[in-house]
């Protein structure tokens, strides 16, 4: 094994980081309050707020410098003084005015170290704190003599930051021991695509960076306490033991190697090395536990049913190679992230840090519960789940993006809360629209109340249903809506023996309709990975498009809380089952080419057809189905609608698509384009040629990923060595050469270097021609002489796509009927 060399190299290259890793914030105010001298605290020096250098910062006229005559031994000098704001002072005058050089997200930390002085007992202080008119703390009072540090993360769009302290009553007072204000690293809080954890549905929480966040917990799971010494943002990370629900379920894991930070993943500023170098994993040695169990932590957050940002940190330090670890993440018992695949999420580099943000509500007991447990994808021999770190931040309240600095703070307090309530109000109205409106119209919705799919009612009277119901499709179906009773009887009441597939959406049954049409019935289960949005998008897309090489929708059913899609039945099943892993006779090379050409045509239609650019997002050999005559049709559009605009802008959200087929550029740029489909299609081409899975974890490392492995052989000019032996002697050299070049180009690292699917189609047609009428020898001129036939092929393609224009044109209006869908369907990635 070449491991030691790698490790040594890793160590050598990571050493310089250790010394140079420090973050220098553009704005960096550190104030030692109530003092005229500097105080050093961990690695930093805090400037006395009544020193000359700070004279412009402190602006409250009636504040008092207070010092502790009897500081506890060994207590930091920073906490020996405090600034006190006696009651009765005007709220208009801010205590501190700090000029900022950069707008954007800042950290604000307020230290409160109460002590007793003859004039003031700081323990009896009671006050509020606001920043630029926005209230951070209300009626805050210290608990005994414990030092409390409150940390807030918020976006400041004004050049001045003002902190005001306001005693709760005229008879009391406010105080502060130290203040930190510094710029957060760029993109510390990302706006797009944070998943809101709610049962059985996917919602996106946007504008996270405009929220005021208050840190409630910051935990180094499985590790030791980390102090500001150990953290480039001077954070403190506590150990997780006190929060573990069942200590016996977890086992500490750690590594001595520095994490393999990858660009696009987490950075040292997101969390320090030590967070990623330790974790808790499933304690599978514990005989008292079942084979599958969760590790759970419960974090008291002090507020009930309040939104929190839950940031989870991961780094696969428990696997010995890639693709060993798959697990699920739950927040408050709701599935937050299914089948986390750290290998894929962290750029196929082991032990590279990754983090993901969720927005979730604390429960009625004021708890946020985080669980990790094995996924269905886990290899039974290697069932495991890990967690390296957790941060929980309360979303204090939405801030208006327009908040600048006002002349009168009071105005801003009012404006802030009015805007806040406006946002709340519109959310409420939205909720009512979503959940209540159709209730009045249909009594039957009552029955589906208890299921997770109730939001479907929102669309019950929408134009989607109307349009589809009224559609007379070319297949002669008067209506696409099919009754549950008909489906039930057509599938023998969902007889398990009729199951022909299981997907993220649910089970697929073979069935028949009243008129004896054979159909495939895809029945969603509540809580399935794909939920309502996929269901609706599939209906929307499929009713809009009809094409010989796309599996067509026969109908759908949404009765009694069922979500069922009915498709034309494809006798021969998925392409994959004709390549390997089944008893089907192997397809000939010519058949395989025809299948590839058919699938490319279907995809070409999706990308460029009369509807509009649609990205499939999950092209793979199990999504290319064959009918009785081995005509290929592309299936499973459940994922296709999500253009990059909604939930794919940031890697921290659920990456959809299938491992092994996923466009590597998608990870780098987090942007999905039609070239991502081309990449996946290239992997299918190699799969067709070599008859092996896109990813085979059982193989030696360099063979695990088919695309990488095949391209290695192709670069050596020896791809013929790994061609499926069943067809090796049928393939003409020129045909192989052209095919291999095409597949390789599809799998180019960068989307711009990949051909369009139209070019791929043209090339595949050409490969078929070379196979049928090309020379037997692989000579430069023989294979190179393609002009004549190529032109023919291209003309063929053009006329083909014209004649196969869809019959669903008339329904294209339905897209505009829903803003959601118009967004979803846009191929904005181009
Ligand atoms: C306190 O620190 C500031 C910089 O933070 C420095 O300019 C100043 O000289 C220091 N004062 C003393 C008395 O050391
Ligand atoms: C998000 O913030 C941007 C700019 O700050 C604003 O234009 C947009 O309306 C906000 N969106 C929501 C949903 O609040
Ligand atoms: C954190 O920093 C302190 C002080 O430098 C050091 O003693 C300790 O070992 C560090 N902890 C870790 C886990 O690196
Ligand atoms: C893990 O926890 C979730 C949420 O509470 C639960 O639904 C799931 O069944 C648990 N998994 C196991 C294996 O116990």
From TrEMBL:
Where is region (Disordered) located? Answer: 775-815
Please provide the record's keywords in A-Z order.
Answer: ATP-binding, Glycoprotein, Kinase, Membrane, Nucleotide-binding, Serine/threonine-protein kinase, Signal, Transferase, Transmembrane, Transmembrane helix
Principal location class: membrane
Where does it reside? Membrane
Topology of the protein relative to the lipid bilayer: Single-pass type I membrane protein
Q: What does UniProt give as the signal peptide span?
A: 1-21
Entry's SMART domains? Answer: S_TKc (SM00220)
Superkingdom classification of source: Eukaryota
Q: Which residues bind ATP?
A: 522
GO CC annotations? Answer: plasma membrane; plasmodesma
For the Protein kinase domain, which residue ranges apply?
494-769
Q: What is this protein called?
A: Probable receptor-like protein kinase At5g24010
Could you tell me which species this protein originates from?
Raphanus sativus (Radish)
Q: What is the lineage of its organism?
A: Eukaryota, Viridiplantae, Streptophyta, Embryophyta, Tracheophyta
